[in-house]
Amino acid sequence: MPIKESELILNPDGSVYHLNIRPEHLAKTVITVGDPDRVDDVTKYFDSVRFKTRKREFHTQTGVYKNKPITVISTGIGTDNIDIVLNELDALANIDFETRKIKKELTTLDIIRIGTSGSIQNNIPIDSFLISEYAVGFDSLLHFYKSDAVQYKNISEALIEHTQWCDQKSSPYVVKCDDILFKQLNSDKTHSGFTATNAGFYGPQGRVLRLALQDDTLNDKLANFNFEGQAITNLEMETAGIYGLSKLLGHRAVSMNAIIANRANGEFTKNAKSTIDSLIHYTLDKLVD
Ligand code: R1P
């Protein structure tokens, strides 16, 4: 059965609804960044760029870096956007837009997030790089999908008990990176970590401006949670959604984090731009190694 027009929405030019790109514009390696302006910061290193488009927060460019075709796309902030980006990227790769049917031969995309993040461990300093081996989602995205098979329930159950998680909040889900991409991008220049993906920047990450928190010890509990040697290392807003949906859709994903804040000691970097730039450079070179 063809997928209905209301479910897979295409624009008059044949591009997918939000991302505004057609299948021929997509490379098999996709770098995601949060900030639309960061797309240029990645593609400035490319040998050539053959395609550019922009719609809402989704800014996309496809080009070639050292003979490797790469698409760079901004997701904006949060896993609600990740739901759109991952599903539309997969549709571009794996659904025939003419027949509206799933292709017989599926394509696996490599999806690499290059983002910023705050460490919650004293020994992961500002201006360092962190590669997320595991991620825990405190958003509810993955619970809308049949996703038990890609979740590490033994870890999330231990975390729920450790934090005395309030059941009025969505229950955490734990997911993992792609092991092959992890090996390719990990090195002695990166900390490997367990990333917490939060449903917001302020309260959900324990920041207090004017509103009191339901649990103001949560960040401490996350920092001293330990599951068989895995401690939670850093906070951001996309990785768990990317890992969960990538696994479900058969894609490979890894998340690279420029640590620009340390929430344990209250420091914020004075070198955000150069730290992110170094991470971009590091990631691109590892991808063509
Ligand atoms: C919050 O300031 C944003 O920064 C981090 C968080 O995940 C969130 O998207 O990542 P990016 O720098 O990639 O946007």
CATH topology category name: Rossmann fold
Q: Kindly report the name of the CATH homologous superfamily.
A: Nucleoside phosphorylase domain
Task: Estimate the mean pLDDT confidence.
Answer: 97
Give the CA-based shape.
globular
Number of strands: 15
Helix content: 25-40%
User: What is the number of independent domains?
Assistant: 1
Q: Can you summarize the main beta sheet? A: 5 strands, mixed, barrel
Strand % is 25-35%
**Helix-strand category:** alpha/beta
Task: Count the DSSP helices.
Answer: 7
CATH class designation: Alpha Beta
Low-confidence stretches: none
Q: What is the H-and-E element order?
A: EHEEEHEEEEHEHEHEEEHEEH
Radius of gyration: 19 Å
CATH-derived architecture: 3-Layer(aba) Sandwich
**What separation lies between the terminal Cα atoms?**
42 Å
Protein name: Uridine phosphorylase
InterPro entries: Nucleoside_phosphorylase_d, Nucleoside_phosphorylase_sf
Catalytic activity: uridine + phosphate = alpha-D-ribose 1-phosphate + uracil
Organism: Bizionia gelidisalsuginis
